[in-house]
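Structure (tokenized):
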């Protein structure tokens, strides 16, 4: 993975984690809602894995994030 992509994916995970924590939802609960493994949720939040577009939309829907906002925040963090 190139450096720019790594930082983008890492920031994406941090933003998801910030929203999850702000709503008081655990990784385990969110992963259960999304139908994914809790370890995979951890990998997403730490930038070790990149979510599919479908999963990204489901994450945004469940955390009440506008997907546009998610990408704007990510661009502004770089």
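Design, position by position:
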């Amino acid at each position: 993975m190139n450096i720019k992509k790594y930082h983008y994916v890492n920031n994406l995970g941090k933003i998801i984690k910030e929203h999850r924590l702000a709503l008081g939802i655990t990784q385990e609960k969110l992963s259960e809602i999304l139908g994914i493994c809790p370890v995979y949720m951890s990998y997403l939040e730490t930038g070790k894995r990149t979510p599919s577009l479908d999963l990204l939309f489901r994450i945004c829907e469940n955390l009440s994030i506008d997907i546009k906002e998610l990408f704007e925040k990510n661009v502004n963090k770089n």
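Reviewer-requested clarification: The two ends are 16 Å apart (CA to CA). The mean pLDDT is 88.
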